[in-house]
TrEMBL record:
UniProt superkingdom: Bacteria
InterPro entries referenced in this protein's UniProt entry, alphabetically: Glyco_trans_2-like (IPR001173), Nucleotide-diphossugar_trans (IPR029044)
Chain ranges of the Glycosyltransferase 2-like domain: 6-168
Protein name: Glycosyltransferase family 2 protein
Amino acid sequence: MLLPVSVVIPAYNAERFIAQTLDSVLAQTFTAFEVIVVNDGSTDETQSIVEHYLLTDDRVRLINQSNQGISATRQRGKAAAKGDFIAFLDADDLWLPHNLEVHLRHFAGHPKLGISFGRVEFMHLDGTPTGVLSTSRLQGIEPEHLFYENLLTTTSNAIVRREVFDQIGGFDVDLCGTEDQEFFLRTCCFGWNVEGVEDVLVRYRITAGGLSSRLDLLEDDWLRFSDKVKAYAPAVVAQHGAKSRAYFLRYIARRSLRVSDSRTIGLRFMRRALKSDWTILLQEPRRTTLTLLAVCCKPLLPRSRPSG
């Protein structure tokens, strides 16, 4: 018989935060779950820290592998999962104690709900709150909304019904940055509902490093993402491609605030965003205008907080 929930935690050189992350899972008010940590070739103390948890809680499992990247690591964890629902949690993020309880209540009585998610609270690297919450759409989600942006913010915010994976497969290993957004979009395109709840359920740690600081790679990944979507939802790309690209270029401009002291980079991406589809100024005037003002005034501003 399947467990209700399998929690998959991909971990690469995660010694700084993995204990806090595991503690946040083991503190859940809903307790019928297993935790699968997939150690993706870490060279630090990640493995030994997780091995300590193996001795203290038999719900925790550890899989060690050579370094294969985030998508393949999540896939490895999912393949080993025994649960009716698969939950993902990055090794530096945290769950609030009622996370699983809220999501399972959301799934109850909604047989076409494929992915449940909630609000995200952003925190600084040291774990202190920024005071900023995600503001994404939660209800009435159509494929184009998931094409425009990653409404879930982070894979740590996703609880997925097992049947979704059985029908559509898993994360695309050819993508590195948009693999979660593409999976959420594909889920919606194949007839499953993707829907959120108002509860704040995840704390997402902001870091300046990682893929989000390598702006030169982000757009290439988005282009691959768009090509993937075109293969199974050509009408979505044809109708919404220009606007989706505009939103993504605005996103890169916003990310540039964290990783560069120059306003030139952000302005370049904002110009291209408005050239792709200037109507984002009308549809999301506040976020678009604030991003434009922020990149223009970058030399005068302290390090930026996320805009949601």
